Amino acid sequence: MTDVRPAVSADGPVETTALHALFRSEQGGHEQVVLCQDRETGLKAVIAIHSTALGPALGGTRFHAYASEKDPEEAAVLDALNLARGMSYKNALAGLEHGGGKAVIIGDPEQLKSEALLEAYGRFVASLGGRYVTACDVGTYVRDMDVVSRTCRWVTGRSPENGGAGDSSVLTAFGVFQGMRASAKHLWGEPTLRGRKVGIAGVGKVGHHLVGHLLEDGAEVVITDVRAEAVDRVRAAHPEVTAVADTDALIRTEGLDVYAPCALGGALNDETVPVLTAKVVCGAANNQLAHPGVEKDLSDRGVLYAPDYVVNSGGVIQVAEELHGFDFARAKAKAEKIYDTTLSIFERAAADGVPPAVAADRIAEQRMADARRAGRS
């Protein structure tokens, strides 16, 4: 492995907008960003550590090709920064003794991924000495974490055969479902989706599990996905599910009660929010709010937004349990508390007169601030 270095080198700042964003207050004051390049395997990666106030940073590894005409590498760094910050807040509200971090491997996993590359990436993670613990994310799977663990001890989301918890999407979906139940209780008075129409954008690792929970609860489900095979898999298992052409058609669906973004981030933006027909947004995707102010736009339109990093924390709860000897029942019991946490956020938002996203941030920031003060005392 070659060229492991800090984002700001001894020779001066790395001249990219993404790295300059590290020091801007709105980015959340990340502690560390490191870059890696391994020429033999084609590995290019970035790890962003947002906070270790509560403990070692924990967050997944995204393997993704960034379609940016200007600079794909810069887009990857910005994504890592945003995702790492989200993990700090997610872990804080999930009650975990972990800070937030995230890694991005840049490139198309279908073309670039190899065991040699993943082993090189493992050495990269290991070089941080435990400040960052990795897991699965978009483009990486349990089998990949098994390979990474050959060269690194700070890995979760491994297979049960290799001492791990297995697929974390199982409890991610379960947690999102608990967030939906809390949203239904807050808005309609009953913690059930029975008789409600729920639209899911993205039925991959998490979304297809979420479909099962909703159908079992008596909901009507509408889906879409950019991959036809993902839609076909769901409809083969659940022919009663309706599929629509794309996300635009989904969010405009007549009678939609809940919209669940379960693909990539930025789903709630200046184009989608004005045409939303649903009264609740609750999904598994990270960083759903495209920019600051979207949370107020949703609130002004009477749309109840369940903060993404709260409701999608079931997966990180699952992989965090792996570090202490995994027990699925114990992990599921912790993920079930997402229902109570989501309700408490809605109550705090109403009391403070702010959108739920702001209330959630305040609670998470208070826990991290308390931990920093305790560490200095």
Biggest sheet layout: 7 strands, mixed
Q: What structural category arises from helix and sheet content?
A: alpha/beta
Radius of gyration: 20 Å
CATH topology name of the largest domain, in short, is Rossmann fold
The number of helical elements comes to: 15
CATH architecture of the largest domain: 3-Layer(aba) Sandwich
**Strand content bin:** 15-25%
Which regions have little confidence, pLDDT < 50, spanning 5+ residues?
1-16
Catalytic activity: L-valine + NAD(+) + H2O = 3-methyl-2-oxobutanoate + NH4(+) + NADH + H(+)
EC number: 1.4.1.23
Pfam family, one: ELFV_dehydrog
Subunit structure: Homodimer.
Topology diagram in text:
Blueprint: E1 2-6, E2 8-9, E3 12-13, H1 17-20, E4 32-38, E5 43-51, E6 57-58, E7 61-64, H2 72-93, E8 99-106, H3 109-112, H4 115-126, E9 132-133, H5 142-148, H6 169-188, E10 197-201, H7 207-217, E11 220-224, H8 228-237, E12 242-243, H9 247-251, E13 258-261, E14 280-281, H10 294-300, E15 304-305, H11 308-311, H12 314-322, H13 328-336, H14 338-352, H15 356-376
Helix pairs in contact: 2-15, 4-5, 6-7, 6-12, 6-13, 6-14, 12-13, 14-15
How would you portray this structure in words?
- With 377 residues, the protein is α/β, with parallel strands linked by helices.
- The protein folds into two domains: 2-87 and 98-162, Leucine Dehydrogenase, chain A, domain 1 (Rossmann fold), CATH 3.40.50; 169-313 and 340-357, 3-Layer(aba) Sandwich (Rossmann fold), CATH 3.40.50.720.
- Helices cover 42% and strands 16% of the residues.
- The protein contains 15 helices and 15 strands.
- The chain has helices spanning 17-20, 72-93, 109-112, 115-126, 142-148, 169-188, 207-217, 228-237, 247-251, 294-300, 308-311, 314-322, 328-336, 338-352, 356-376, and strands at residues 2-6, 8-9, 12-13, 32-38, 43-51, 57-58, 61-64, 99-106, 132-133, 197-201, 220-224, 242-243, 258-261, 280-281, 304-305.
- The strands form three sheets. Strands 1, 4, 5, 6, 7, 8 and 9 form a seven-stranded mixed beta sheet that branches. It has a six-stranded parallel beta sheet with strand order 12-11-10-13-14-15, sandwiched between helices.
- Helix 6 (169-188) runs antiparallel to helix 12 (314-322), helix 6 packs parallel to helix 13 (328-336) and helix 14 crosses helix 15 (356-376).
